[in-house]
Amino acid sequence: QLQLVESGGGLVQPGGSLRLSCAASGFTLDDYTIGWFRQAPGKEREGVSCISRTDGSTYYADSVKGRFTISRDNAKNTVYLQMNSLKPEDTAVYYCTADRAAFYCSGYEPDYWGQGTQVTVSS
Asked: How many CA atoms does the CB half-sphere of 68 hold within 13 Å?
């Protein structure tokens, strides 16, 4: 069974950092373009970041550019989202997703979703 499992969420003060992990089971992440989405209460879901399966090229939403970094460790079959300089507006449930068909982040449409991990930025 194909599964994505996120971890690393929690409560952090503004200006702090968290690293989210996305571990895959039942398939090899290296064969997929991986994206992170987030959804805050009462807001639309937002694409946060993506990393291509082809050349490792990345995409970041303007709201997180310069603060978040996506990376993948193929040996561990895991993708990470390093989040620095966190702001209260980053508070949301963060979802890891995977798309087999996408070679690059352009046109990304997830086939698989994780269960999500809560990130709360508050003093």
From this structure: 26
Within 8 A by CB and 6+ apart from 112, the residues are 2, 3, 4, 32, 97, 98
pLDDT tens, 54-87?
A: 999 999 999 999 999 999 998 999 999 999 999 9
| Residue whose tokens read 């194909």 | 2
List Cβ<8 Å contacts ≥24 apart for 96-99: 96/4, 96/6, 96/20, 96/22, 96/34, 96/35, 96/36, 97/4, 97/34, 97/35, 97/36, 97/37, 98/4, 98/24, 98/27, 98/29, 98/32, 98/33, 98/34, 98/35, 99/32, 99/33, 99/34, 99/35
Residues 6 or more apart whose Cβ sits within 8 Å of residue 100: 31, 32, 111
